[in-house]
Backbone:
């Protein structure tokens, strides 16, 4: 049984998203980007209807970094319910094409529609012809279905004949089709319709095709889609780059103004810059794109958190996460995000979650706890360490200490104890002579010690973060610990009093280090390695 | 007779000096010996033997007298002067090189000031200026712009950019690519934009 009562692991585990992974789309920014594309399609449809089928074309670009969810969004759009009655979407990954010939790109574009597309368009065309046959008692149209007197006598319906063609159990009459459509369609359009009905649509292009033919064929296909399905054709070109031939084809496609078509380009800022440097006319056209889908902030914490929750919620609609489970999971995601820059992108975080869910299932854990995340990271990312900590704090310890340190008063006392433990440890290891003591002085912890040089040091530890009520792990919000020193030096001839005061800022890593060390010290779990690191830790906060 | 009159009289004698017995005759009605003893003690005048007689000089006059009459002293004096010139040259050179070296910390200070107070403002300003319709800007372009204005070194620039993008990760976004930038997850990130 998977954690959080999940029947399956909802997270994909692949370096790039597959079709089945993209049924869900999470995160505010990605949802907004999706709405922007839908809005563009609706606007295009409206304009075509207003202008009675005029050639309307739109160019949309998505320019963002690798791993930001561009491909996920593009694939999601191909299958999303909101577009089912509005658009026919073709997705092509240009990076899979080599060499980038005109034929290769054309084949990828017409082969990029969903699996149902051919059936849908075949059905739509046949349905249209059947309606004509039924409505006008059009003999030519009936002939297409090979509908005879004998069929009429047997009460075989046109619908049944149509279904036989759909099921490839019988063929249609090509001559009748040409004669029927000749009034409203060009030869090329009729040829394309024939290809579709004969299931030769995808296999018909074995020979080389010129750029001109490519443009004409795509125009014809877009027109057929709009006439028979009343939908816009969307061609998504993913991983578009500055390959010379690809750029020439793209420029031609944009210049051609394919009718009732939306061309959606997905590319990285790097590719965009290369296009700027190598093909200025194309860059100019891309700059003038009708819509620029902005995925800014797609790798922010709230976006990644939203996506993670979307996957879990999507997989268990009947028993959603409780508030405490949700808060706990979000706190862990936040720590992973803050402490490991490697996880500050959607793909990596989803991968961690995939493995954490699997590991939880193996351990029969009802939730992803600190130890599971620790083990997951150790297994999946063996080279990853908490980089800013002096002590050897594991991810699970870090998370545990962070979750325990939600109260100012508790932190203050525990820091005081930790400082005391550090001094005692140093004293026991020859660093400090004399005894140390700690005394709770209300707002602060005072610790005194005398070192080898006879310097007596009073350390006052106070926590200056009255506005913070919970453990904050965002970088930059350090905890300020004031270490005020008053030292007295003595020698044979004179007595000199020196007053020193300094303020040491203890960031969250040092705070965790201190509390981790304190836990180990008072739990009698200190090893030689820990002592050496503790000395460094003491030095880093200017205790010695 | 005052001490000043006595000193003026000795000064007028220049490098030749004045014989003590002569001077004594001129200043008969005064405590001559006491005055001479006091002026010698304070270093205002110098007394030395010339032949069998005692002469008195002002120190500069006595120096000139020695340079013309005492070869050993003249050689020693010349050597000391030579050393003095060499020392002064060395000092001047050291001072100049020190000046050059202090110009570097001054530049660092300027960078440091920029870092503390204005780096982010300047960075934002250049980012905004260079930003195209997609929002993405090559970090190298920002660096070149800031380098011209602030004489920032490349490594200083990227160190500061790393610092602010790490700290303000909800304000900036980095993207992989480019020929220079910050390495994250083993990828060179050479593009930046504001969120």
Residues:
């Amino acid at each position: 049984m998977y954690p959080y009562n999940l029947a399956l692991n909802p997270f994909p585990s692949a370096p790039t998203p597959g079709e089945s992974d993209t049924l869900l789309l999470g995160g505010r920014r990605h949802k907004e980007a999706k709405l922007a594309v839908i809005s563009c399609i609706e606007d295009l449809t409206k304009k075509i209807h207003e202008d009675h089928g005029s050639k309307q074309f739109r160019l949309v670009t998505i320019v963002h970094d690798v791993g930001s969810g561009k491909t996920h969004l593009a694939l999601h759009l191909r299958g999303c319910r909101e577009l089912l009655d509005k658009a026919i979407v073709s997705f092509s990954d240009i990076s899979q094409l080599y060499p980038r010939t005109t034929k290769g790109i054309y084949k990828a574009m017409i082969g990029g529609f969903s699996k149902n597309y051919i059936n849908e368009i075949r059905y739509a065309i046949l349905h249209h012809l059947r309606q004509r046959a039924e409505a006008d008692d059009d003999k030519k149209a009936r002939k297409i279905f090979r509908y005879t007197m004998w069929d009429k006598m047997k009460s075989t319906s046109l619908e049944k004949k149509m279904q036989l063609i759909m099921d490839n159990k019988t063929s249609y009459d090509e001559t009748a089709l040409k004669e029927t459509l000749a009034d409203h369609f060009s030869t090329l359009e009729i040829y394309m319709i024939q290809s579709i009905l004969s299931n030769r649509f995808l296999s018909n292009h074995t020979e080389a095709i010129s750029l001109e033919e490519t443009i004409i064929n795509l125009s014809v296909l877009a027109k057929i889609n709009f006439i028979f399905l009343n939908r816009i054709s969307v061609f998504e070109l993913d991983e578009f780059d500055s390959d010379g031939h690809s750029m020439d084809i793209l420029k031609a496609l944009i210049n051609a103004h394919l009718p009732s078509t939306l061309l959606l380009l997905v590319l990285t800022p790097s590719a965009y810059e290369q296009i700027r440097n190598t093909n200025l006319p194309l860059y100019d056209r891309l700059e003038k794109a009708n819509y620029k889908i902005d995925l800014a902030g797609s790798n922010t914490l709230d976006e990644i958190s939203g996506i993670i929750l979307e996957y879990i919620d999507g997989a268990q609609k009947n028993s959603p996460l409780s508030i405490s489970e949700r808060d706990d999971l979000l706190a862990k995601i936040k720590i992973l995000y803050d402490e490991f820059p490697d996880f500050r992108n959607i793909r990596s975080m989803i991968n961690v979650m995939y493995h954490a869910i699997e590991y939880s299932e193996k351990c029969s854990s009802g939730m992803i706890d600190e130890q599971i995340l620790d083990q997951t990271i150790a297994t999946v990312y063996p080279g990853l360490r908490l980089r800013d900590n002096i002590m050897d704090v594991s991810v699970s310890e870090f998370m545990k200490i962070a979750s325990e340190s939600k109260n100012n008063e508790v932190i203050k006392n525990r820091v005081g104890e930790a400082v005391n433990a550090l001094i005692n440890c140093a004293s026991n290891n020859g660093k400090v002579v004399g005894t140390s003591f700690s005394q709770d002085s209300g707002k602060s912890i005072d610790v005194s010690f005398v070192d080898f040089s006879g310097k007596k040091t009073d350390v006052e530890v106070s926590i200056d973060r009255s506005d913070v009520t919970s453990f904050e792990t965002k970088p930059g919000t350090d905890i300020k610990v004031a270490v005020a020193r008053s030292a007295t030096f003595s020698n044979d001839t004179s007595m000199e009093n020196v007053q020193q005061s300094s303020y040491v800022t203890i960031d969250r890593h040092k705070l965790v280090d201190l509390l981790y060390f304190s836990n180990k010290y008072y739990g009698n779990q200190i090893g030689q390695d820990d002592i050496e690191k503790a000395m460094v830790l003491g030095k880093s906060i200017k205790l010695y | 007779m005052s001490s000043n009159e006595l000193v003026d009289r000795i000064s007028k004698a220049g490098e030749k000096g004045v014989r003590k017995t002569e001077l004594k005759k001129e200043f008969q009605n005064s405590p001559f010996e006491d005055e001479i003893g006091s002026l010698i003690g304070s270093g205002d005048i110098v007394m030395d033997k010339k032949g069998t007689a005692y002469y008195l000089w002002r120190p500069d006059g006595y120096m000139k007298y020695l340079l013309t009459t005492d070869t050993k002293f003249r050689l020693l004096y010349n050597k000391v002067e030579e050393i003095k010139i060499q020392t002064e040259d060395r000092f001047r050179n050291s001072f100049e090189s020190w000046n050059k070296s202090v110009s570097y910390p001054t530049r660092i200070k300027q960078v440091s000031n920029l870092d503390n107070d204005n780096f982010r403002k300047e960075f934002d300003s250049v980012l905004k200026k260079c930003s195209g319709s997609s929002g993405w800007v090559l970090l190298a372009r920002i660096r070149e712009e800031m380098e011209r204005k602030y004489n920032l070194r490349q490594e200083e620039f990227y160190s500061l950019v790393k610092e602010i993008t790490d700290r303000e990760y909800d304000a900036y976004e980095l993207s992989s690519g480019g020929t220079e930038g910050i390495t994250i997850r083993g990828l060179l990130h050479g593009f930046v934009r504001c969120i």
User: Anything to note?
Assistant: Chain B touches chain A at residues 132-136, 138, 166-170, 173-178, 184-185, 187, 189-191, 193-195 (CB under 8 Å).
